[in-house]
Amino acid sequence: MQPAPPTPAPPTPSQPQQLSRWLLAAAAAVVLALAWLTTTPIGTQLTAWLTPVSDAGDQAIARAFQAQRSGVQVASDGVVERVLSDDNAGSRHQRFILRLDSGHNVLVAHNIDRAPRLRALKPGDRVAFFGEYAWNGKGGVIHWTHNDPNGRHIAGWLSHNDQRVQ
Question: How much is the pLDDT for 77?
Answer without folding.
Answer: 95
